[in-house]
């Protein structure tokens, strides 16, 4: 028998109104009783909950959460990077996560298709920032600045196919350093390369090499090889893939997709296989083709001067002049560079991790002018550190060698062996916090002492302050070293000074 449901008139009206408003009601049949209406409303309310059971809980493709352990590792990496930027006199800067779409278009060449566009929700067409360089150039032009040395740490977004194993994501963090302004040639450029060396050495990633080239040399090379000027940038984009795919595949792309003649591609192939040091720069001055290109000669002269400064900085042996280096972004105008890691024999037990370049950059003298109505140029040079790729390497090495990570920085734990001492513990921990000491306690009225000591050992807290009836009576506290398990009695008024002394020694 159907169950009889009795409803008050107002409840009946409310249920009927809810049924009529429900987006899940496609049609309304004749309903003969209040019980049928109630059943229909309850069914419509239950459906969303039933559907939630099929929900797949995951992060969006190409993104990830960072655990507390991973945050610790990332912060250490960022500290090395930002400390170096500050050591070289850079000021911090931040820009919005999204820009007007017009600000980003026609700045990245073929990579423009990887920009994330946002739905128009406020009367403006917006896009998530693709890198930190274009927003910096926009900032310089908008504020009419002629000179600045800045660093910027922030997330960027690229709608590409992610390769998580190689540290390639759709959302990732970049650390940029840039020098904007009119200066004598190659001094800022040399400092950027010096910064890259300092950071990669400081992160202890192993041996590395920084490849350098110049867009003017590339353009001169394209011209003498027979590449039409209209295809300089798209050819550059193909050559930029040489660190990921073979020359045979790049040649096929240039001929089949970019429309270059096979003999033109072959002439380019003869050049892009050349790499070396200052001697190769000297050799290219004598090259029958490049020596006829005014652009190429300008680039070669700057590279020769750059090597002089790099020698003075003591890093020339880390720099390789590589004619295959292209850097696909359209805004580069002069010297370009890219750092790659070299796996040493000592790392043979580690599984090889091909992450590509871990840092890159170059000169972009015309980008600021693109945002200026009058076209006033501000020469710029900069670099970007690939945090995600470096993080992937560090994380893998830590797993390989089983390194344990402390996820907190707690220095002191406040404990008691007796019951009803919560108030005394709270007063004591407040004193430590007020003194700037990182301290913790268990959120229980009467925790067992063994439980408290085990917590300290498991989380790596170095010191324990113990307060009990005897200590309270004598006006002292016990200070225990977790590692050695040694305890000493200290007057309460001397506790902060004693803790600070011990922490300073450690």
Q: What's this, in brief?
A:
The protein is of the alpha+beta class and 506 residues long. The chain is built from 17 helices and 17 strands.
Based on the model shown, name its key terms.
single chain; 506 residues; alpha+beta; nine-stranded mixed β-sheet; five-stranded mixed β-sheet; 17 helices; 17% strand; elongated; disordered N terminus
Number of strands: 17
Largest sheet: 9 strands, mixed
Tally the helices.
17
Strand content is 15-25%
**What characteristic shape results from the CA principal axes?**
elongated
Poorly predicted residue ranges = 1-8, 22-33, 344-348
What is the alpha-carbon Rg in Å? 32 Å
- What is the end-to-end distance? 79 Å
Please state the structural category: alpha+beta
Q: What percentage of residues falls in helices of 4 or more residues?
A: 40-55%
Q: Give average pLDDT, whole number.
A: 87
Please give the order of strands in the largest beta sheet: 1-5-6-12-11-10-7-9-8
Task: Report what the structure shows.
- The radius of gyration is 32 Å and the shape is elongated.
- With 506 residues, it is of the alpha+beta class.
- It is built from 17 helices and 17 strands.
- The strands form 3 sheets. Strands 1-5-6-12-11-10-7-9-8 form a 9-stranded mixed beta sheet.
- Residues 1-8, 22-33 and 344-348 have low confidence and may be disordered.
